[in-house]
Amino acid sequence: MRIRIFSLIGLFIGILFNFSAVVSFAQTRPEYIPLGGGVKGVLYRPDSNPSPQVAVIIIHRTSNYLQHAGCTQLSQRGLMVLCMNSRFDNNEALVNWELIALDVKRGVDYLKTTQKISKVILFGHSGGGPTTTYYQAVAEKGPSYCQGPNKLSQCDSSGPNSVAGLTPADGIILADAHPGNTVNALRAINPSVREAQDKEVVGVDAHNEPIIPVKRLDPFDPDNGYNPNGDSNYSKKFQQDYTAAQADRMNNWINQALRIRSLMAQGEWRFPDNDSIIIARGGGSQAGGGDGANLFVPDVDILCCTVKPQKLLLNDGSIVTQIVKSVRLPNPAVAEGNEEFDGGTKNLTVTAFLSANTIRATDSMDYNQIDWCSSNNSTPCALQNITVPLLVTSMGAHYFHVDAEQFYENYAASTDKENIVFAGLTHGISPCTTCAGGPYTNQVNNYWNYLFNWIQTRFGS
Known about the structure:
2 domains, single chain, 12 helices
């Protein structure tokens, strides 16, 4: 029996070796690169360009991006691509946001020093947007960018975690990037949870009865405009009350977390270093946000459209300039998940909450009422401190195209900047097959061709 088992193991190893050999000699020849410090990388070399001078880094806060579509799409077009996972991959509760710049640094230094790449472009998809822009802002401005009395969490300028001396990248591409994990949490929190059930408490007997929401703020009450079978229709009054209440609830949690952190520093809390924070109906704590109580998910008329005409790339490859309206579909099913622990609850630590999951505001949807630089996980704050060429891209079957317009019009300090929406693409950079205006059969190819041409025009390959 033992001989038989060893034979099967040997056969499996042989198959695995042959498979690895096939993969390693495929067009993009992915190669695992251990970058240290818990940071992982896979290097995709272009066979069509044996000596590339331009490389792209693809990284997210917590998602596994080692096989992101851009890894092969861009390497097949002649660019070197380093796809990376931060030290916090797949674990939002472990995130200490200010340290993530040191993870991006490992990739930039590896490409510049080991691979002798002359131009490095940062590609920020979704949560990769705040990740890459945070790095670049610190690299251009130094640690003073991520420090100050207004910050809920601050970076280090000395010691082993110092973010001083980072090498700036040469350009940034945002791909349906969001304003920050912080703002996503703000817009996802359900403000109808009653105050008595909304405090950091210890013990099984402390306010654990089923939540009965405050009716006037319940986003999943049909009397407030919710439609469980289609597109919801919230009144302007309800929207205003709701988004202000979201900010109020988030500010209350900020105050609780700051108090806990202060007591820990004084040695008066149950743990000296960190503790858990559980926010019922706060939106899931996994990448992607889980089942949040964002009004614009069941009601597609909210965050539907750009304010000004923006460039829109159509399926036939042509570009028009117009007010861009999303073709996304409503998702009323988030109501059920929002009540649950798995899909609708923030299960974090004090550090992860304050550094990467909250921001000060008086209204969750009004850009002028969000204190963008109170958190370092903030794309609008970072963009005001970045000068390298910037390409802002967004997907026409999602809702971040509205945020993208804000980035481009009101926050980006780069003089070389561009904003463009791709009709019919979903947040995952794939075509929506059920959205109006389709089919969008050419859009994936259109997207990656556009990015490659933008890079090649400015930096070569």
